[in-house]
Amino acid sequence: MTSIERTAYPRFKRLITAHELHLFFSPTREELQWAADATDCDEHLLALLLMLKSYRRMGCFPAMEDVPAMMVDFVRQAVELPEGTLPVYRAERTAKHHRGLGRRRVGVTYNQARARGIIEQSIRKEAAAKNRPADLINIALEKVVEAGLELPGFSTFGKMASKIRTGIHDRMSAAQRAGLMRLLEERDNDGTTLFNRLKKPAKGPTWSHFKNLTRRLEWLDGLGDSDVWMDGVAAGKITDFAGEADAVDASELRDFVPVKRIALVAALTHKARMRVRDDLATMFCKRVATKIKKAEAELEGIRLAEREIVEALIGNYRMVLKHIDEGGPAQEALRSYLVEVGLCEPGESAEFDGSSFRRQLEGKLGNAAAAADAGYPENEGLIIDQETGIPSLKAFRADGQRPSAKRLEQEIKARMPERSLMGIVARTAYWVEWRRRFGPPSGNEPKLTDPLGRYVIVTFVKGTNMGPYEAARHIPGVSGHELSYVANKHFSIMLLNEAIADLVNAHARLDISQAWGDGTAVAADGDRRPTGWSARRNSPVTP
Fold first, then answer.
1. Residues with Cβ < 8 Å from 321, sequence gap 6 or more?
2. How many angstroms separate the CA atoms of 165 and 131, rounded?
């Protein structure tokens, strides 16, 4: 079962800003009067108001022990209740009565049987195209909200998403299922299982690799017609199953239940057949392109040789014209051509050869250097070393901090304790909960001893470009294999981008961030940074 953090099921977040408290949890006068008329003590008044405001915000009634303390204090102070008043019920019957009052107040229907029916129908319909439990739960949540019903508990969604699935087990013969299961046991020539052969990528476009790839396609076709197995299964679900199988080893796959194990291996086999066919076509195109490139290089060599011959003939022809046709029409045509291409000035009678061309360039460069030297006395920031002639720019010196800036710096240091980089990563992972973005390809809850700690360490290690085994030497309690496994199996570029978006959005919600503006304008230094598609195309992505 997946965790609630990975879904859109409403819950109290750890990071709640003052703006959100005032916007969503401030009781109105009408609500206060309504709650006061329906209760007989301060504890019940506070509890009923918290139920009402929580339902308006989340669409379900929370347990009183799950309501954050800062929210309890905010509502208690807003309605001016005595310090120390707690939202408690002396009897469950009173809590049930208050939930009924809240439903009538917001106009919602309590019909758990109908809600469960909508959940089951939605998950059964979407399970044909989606595989992740979190996606199935989110779709069912949307349908229940559209029906105007109170949300059942999260466990109801989780159990249904885990139970209602569609499979491909019955589309395969017993011999085909046995053949797929042998992939997890039989060994290849390199000592690995045949299951690992399904994951191997194509090599370079050599003739021997092309023949090996052809034999691999024949071996895959011998496992069975995967097109029949996957008939009617959505492409997205096949991709999810294949990705989950690709992320685990044969030893881990043996721990899965047989039906799911066969489904994952079958999906990976289907994807492997598609990939090998694509690789064969790509390799064929690359080999043809190599032949074409080689032929073009040979053709270019022939063209250059022919050009040298032509240039030699033209040079010889010019020498002949110089001696037998001095001042004739051929010489005049040559000068007109030199003027046309910019290699000679109109009316210039000097000979044009390699030496004159060099002198012409030296003259132009000398004029440009003289113009630059003429502006040197007025450029106070430029210094040219008299001995080496190397130019340099003077460092710009600030006027110094004002006394008010120094006092501000001291106040900031006094109120902001020093944090380690690892501590900052851990605190943001706890408060913002970006760690929920990472996990196994199946979308289920990670089976790690300490998921939060492992994801924090891996994020720190990858962000500092430190290798997992080097990090394990300096961080007690973890091994290099463990960090490498988590980084390869639970992280991806897409998940990293989602976690980054969580951090950016959480920072934008802070009051101090909104004090700088509404986010429609940005200030930057003088550095030029590539952004957008060109940056992704030209720059490697570093987690």
1. 328, 330, 331, 334
2. 8
Q: Which residue, among 74, 48, 80, has the nearest Cα to 61 in the 3D structure? A: 48
DSSP secondary structure, 166-229, as one string = ---GGGS-HHHHHHHHHTTTSB-TTSSBHHHHTTPPP--S-HHHHHHHHHHHHHHHHH--HHHH
DSSP 332-344: HHHHHHHHHTTSS
Determine the Cα angle at 514 with ends 510 and 515, to 5°. Answer: 115
The b/e string for 314-342 (b: 16+ C-beta within 10 A; e otherwise) is: eeeeeeebeeeeeeeeeeeeeeeeeeeee
Q: Of the candidates 518, 535, 541, which has an alpha carbon nearest to the alpha carbon of residue 465?
A: 541
Angstrom CA distances, 135 to 115, 126, 132, 157, stand at 18, 9, 5, 11
- The predicted pLDDT at position 542 comes to 39
Q: What is the pLDDT of residue 539?
A: 43
- Say if residue 256 is exposed, middle or buried (CB neighbours under 10 Å; 0-12, 13-18, 19+): middle
Backbone angles phi, psi at 307, to 5 degrees: -65, -40
Q: Do 440 and 2 meet the contact criterion of CB atoms below 8 Å apart?
A: no
Name the amino acid, one letter, at 356. Answer: S
Q: What is the pLDDT of residues 429-479, one digit of tens each?
A: 998 989 888 988 767 778 788 888 999 999 999 888 888 899 888 888 888
Rounded distance between C-alpha atoms, residue 262 and residue 269, angstroms = 10
Q: What are 10-55's pLDDT values in tens digits? A: 888 887 888 888 888 999 999 999 999 998 899 999 999 999 998 8
**pLDDT value of residue 536:** 43
The answer to whether the beta carbons of residues 54 and 67 sit under 8 Å apart is: yes
- DSSP letter at 65 equals G
| Structure token digits, residue 217 | 């396609």
Q: Which residues of 348-381 are buried (b: 16+ CB within 10 A; e: fewer)?
A: eeeeeeeeeeeebeeeeeeeeeeeeeeeeeeeee
pLDDT of residue 533: 42
Instruction: Say what the pLDDT of residue 540 is.
Output: 43
Residues in the chain, pLDDT under 50: 166, 532-543
pLDDT for residue 192: 83
Domains of the chain, residue spans? 4-106, 112-163, 183-293, 420-538
Residue 514 CA to residue 498 CA, distance in Å, equals 22
Task: Give, in order, the Cα–Cα distances in Å from 173 to each of 178, 253, 258, 404.
Answer: 9, 21, 14, 81
Residue 60 buriedness (CB in 10 A; 0-12 / 13-18 / 19+) = middle
Buried b (16+ CB within 10 A) or exposed e, 170-202: ebbeeebbebbbebbeeeeeeeebbbbbbbeeb
What is the enclosing helix (H) or strand (E) of 384?
A: strand 382-384
Take residue 398 and report the two structure tokens written for it: 């600030």
321 neighbors 331 (Cβ within 8 angstroms):
yes
CA 337 to chain centre: 59
SS3 category, 383: strand
CB 168 within 8 A of CB 232: no
